[in-house]
Write a structure and sequence with these properties.
The complex is a heterodimer of chains A (about 375) and B (about 350). Chain A has about 375 residues and is an alpha/beta fold. Helix content of chain A is about 35%, strand content about 15%. In chain B, helix 1 runs parallel beside helix 4, helix 3 packs parallel to helix 4 and helix 6 packs antiparallel against helix 9. Chain B has two domains: about 140 residues, PurM-like, N-terminal domain (60s Ribosomal Protein L30, Chain: A, 2-Layer Sandwich), CATH 3.30.1330.10; about 160 residues, PurM-like C-terminal domain (Phosphoribosyl-aminoimidazole Synthetase, Chain A, domain 2). Chain B is globular and about 85 Å long. The chains are: A alpha/beta (about 375), B alpha+beta (about 350). The interface between A and B is medium-sized, with 36 and 23 residues.
């Protein structure tokens, strides 16, 4: 497959692997956090770990949109489908996220709620056009990458004068989450999470550009290398991070220059700014309430905001006590440190969100890497 | 004065007619549907006896029986339809015992309101597939359910075949060291179906690979009578099939990603849909496991058959108490190829 296979080439990978092995200082360990679930998935799926020396350790970050969605938000979505009898349109990977009372969107669907899987926000808009007289709510989730398409359908719905369409907005912001991790006691004081640098987001950066990360590099003296989601991208980014650490540098570098510019996608950013505004704070699974870390619709678009349309106050629901998703999302624990990993919690019966999405650290380890920790 | 013409029944209006409840009632309408549609298409000496069962000659050897219900949506797809699929699927299930399929039965569940014209297309396609395979449909059944309680047409087929003494093909027979082969490119059927899904409109030239594999199997068994395992990787794809065999045989497996044949169009479609071709369904491919010393001979026999031209050896069976299927990635790393979690596709077979 052209333009894809080139970035999965085993021979090139061997070359980069040997450079990493040669240049990594055997006297120290390198801890790099891959922020995005897309990177977590690529690392597991292609077995990138097998090409890294033992002293280069990857720490999974919180960049999996499904994983960071707290129980309360899923409960609210289910309520929209059951109490308000709305057609709830959602991306497929949220279907199995555990909610309160043993429910999930999939189980609510089995109980008769009208929940439909869509591939894009515009599919939800089309459903609203085709079913006048029914409320249609799009469960909008994701980081900066999926935000512009949501903004677009809100604008289109207004232009079409649709009165039965709204968005349940759960869009979150990457830079706020990275700040939160770097400010956390585990990183700053306790030293339980060592981070020597970040593999920076791929698709998110195509929208926001590389410039927003300059602050982290400077303020926290952590190198950031923005990388594509193909395994060679990840390998090359790791090599660039090793070099920065060795040279005592901490700057933003862009490995994903075929798609990411310093300023990002101006049109998409303008569209998002037209429709959305910052929330004062938003609850993330694992990270708790993070200030200015999420978006909501501006007052001008309130009619399309499901939270206001159906008068739904925010609610907070505690995670299952046995589940370590929170600590795993912060990089404090690994999936195998969780007592229920692979026993009570599996992809078929997930207890926490990290076991649901293919980008989740637990699902990736269970599906692709379980043999590494098998007896 | 009107004369009563005995023996005359106004023929079914196949062009404009719809299935109605009377077609499943056991009355004259049902008899007419059977005569004019099913019997006309499937025609053979056993059906013509018009009994509720078929009496067929028994060859020597062990009897092999398989049944499969088909609920594919959409009913018509690039490269086939539910009719030929229901013939191929069951013939393949019988053949995967190393057996020669002999007879098929068919059970139809029709939804009230389904167009007779479409039903005829399906029945004709079934008849053509059965004739081409040389496996007659010898008895059948038809039921009609009320509108909204079915999805157009569901078809169950049961196949009966015979396997020669000495041939012992089973999912439980794989042993460490054995070679794992596939008969061609993977994922074609699933992607062809996906391309038609209502909310997933992408254009593709990919056709379903639906086909009866019994002649390929016959050539393989002739070349290597000691073949250990045969299975067609339908729902859940190659990954699921290998995990099933690993569990049955209490062994592990290691496969090589670079050796697995996948069409570029299929891997591209999977790429943008976020699917893994290893989990996508096939309807005209098989997985074979044989002793390492037989592998080259089996591969040559497969490649010599038109349905096995793209056959490849993709890995081997290993000793592993966890029964894991692992893959050496094209990238140079290692990963597990696990059971499918959840559902990757709508109904596909």
């Amino acid at each position: 497959m052209k333009y894809v296979d080139e970035f999965r080439d085993g021979e090139l990978a061997k070359g980069i692997a040997s450079r990493i092995a040669n240049e990594a200082d055997p006297a120290r360990t390198y801890h790099f956090m891959e922020f995005c679930g897309g990177h977590t998935h690529a690392i597991s799926r292609y077995g990138v770990k097998d090409l890294l020396p033992a002293n280069v350790v990857m720490v999974h970050g919180p960049g999996c949109p499904v994983c960071v969605l707290p129980i309360g938000r899923i409960d609210m979505a289910i309520e929209l489908a059951i109490r308000e009898k709305a057609i709830l349109c959602t991306y497929a990977d949220t279907m199995r996220v555990p909610a309160s009372g043993g429910l999930s969107l999939m189980k609510a669907k089995a109980k008769g709620a009208d929940i439909r899987m869509v591939y894009s926000a515009s599919d939800a808009l089309r459903i609203a056009q085709e079913t006048p007289g029914r409320e249609v709510v799009f469960l909008a989730i994701g980081f900066e990458t999926t935000t512009p398409p949501t903004a677009l359908v809100v604008r289109q719905a207004a232009q079409l004068g649709l009165e039965n369409f709204s968005v349940f907005c759960n869009h979150v912001l990457t830079p706020a989450a990275i700040s939160h991790i770097l400010e956390s006691p585990e990183v700053r004081e306790l030293g339980t999470v060592k981070i020597d640098g970040f593999v920076g987001p791929a698709h998110v950066s195509t929208i926001i550009g590389s410039q927003p990360y300059d602050y982290f590099a400077e303020e926290y003296a952590k190198p950031v290398v923005i990388a594509g989601f193909e395994p060679l991208d990840v390998m090359q980014a790791i090599l660039m991070l090793v070099r920065q650490v060795n040279e005592g540098r901490a700057v933003v570098e862009n490995e994903f220059s075929r798609a990411v510019t310093a300023d990002g996608n101006a049109k998409a950013k303008a569209l998002v700014a037209e429709i959305f505004e910052l929330r004062r704070a938003f609850e993330w699974r694992g990270l708790g309430r993070v200030p200015y870390s999420a978006l909501r619709l501006k007052d001008q678009w309130a009619a399309f905001d499901a939270e206001r349309r159906f008068d739904m106050p925010e609610r907070s629901v505690a995670d299952n006590k046995a589940c370590e998703c929170g600590a795993i999302l912060r990089g404090v624990k690994k999936p195998v440190d969780c007592k229920v990993f692979g026993t009570a919690c599996t992809p078929e019966t997930p207890m926490g969100s990290c076991m649901v999405s293919s980008e989740g650290a637990c699902a990736a380890h269970y599906t692709y890497g379980r043999f590494r920790s098998a007896a | 004065m009107s004369a009563v013409r005995t023996g005359y029944v106004r023929p079914l209006d196949v062009k404009r007619g719809l299935v109605d409840m009377s077609h499943g009632s056991g009355g004259r309408a049902m008899a007419q549907l059977i005569d004019e549609l099913f019997l006309a298409a499937f025609d053979n000496e056993w059906l013509r006896e018009m009994n509720d069962q078929a009496r067929v000659p028994m060859p020597s050897g062990r009897l092999v029986i398989a049944t499969d219900s088909h609920v594919v949506s959409p009913l018509f797809f690039p490269g086939g339809d539910i009719g030929c699929l229901s013939v191929h699927g069951t013939i393949n299930d019988v053949a995967m015992a190393g057996a020669k399929p002999l007879y098929l039965t068919s059970g139809f569940i029709l939804e009230e309101g389904y167009p007779l014209a479409d039903l005829k297309r399906i029945v004709d396609s079934m008849a053509a597939a059965a004739r081409e395979a040389g496996v007659p449909i010898v008895t059948g059944d038809t039921k009609v359910v009320e509108q909204g309680k079915g999805d157009g047409v569901f078809i169950n087929t049961t196949g009966v075949g015979v396997v020669l003494e000495g041939v012992d093909v089973s999912g439980a027979n794989a042993r460490p060291g054995d070679a794992i082969l596939v008969s061609g490119t993977l994922g074609d059927h699933g992607v062809a179906i996906m391309s038609l899904r209502e909310n997933l409109t992408f254009e593709t030239t990919i056709q379903s690979d639906t086909a009866a594999l019994h002649t390929l199997v016959a050539a393989m068994v002739e070349a290597v009578p000691g073949i250990r395992t045969l299975r067609d990787p339908t729902r859940g794809g190659l990954a699921t099939t290998l995990n099933e065999i690993a569990r049955q045989s209490k062994a592990g497996m290691t496969i090589r990603e670079a050796a697995i044949p996948v069409r570029p169009e299929v891997s591209a479609a999977c790429e943008f849909l976020g699917l893994d071709p290893l989990y996508v369904a096939n309807e005209g491919k098989l997985v074979a496991i044989c002793a390492p010393e037989d592998a080259e001979r089996l591969l040559a026999a497969m490649r010599a058959h038109p349905q096995g031209r793209d056959s490849a050896i993709i890995g081997e069976v290993v000793a592993d108490a966890n029964h894991f299927v692992q893959m050496e990635t094209g990238f140079g790393g290692r990963r597990m190829v696990d059971w499918l979690a959840g559902e990757q596709l709508p109904r596909i077979c």
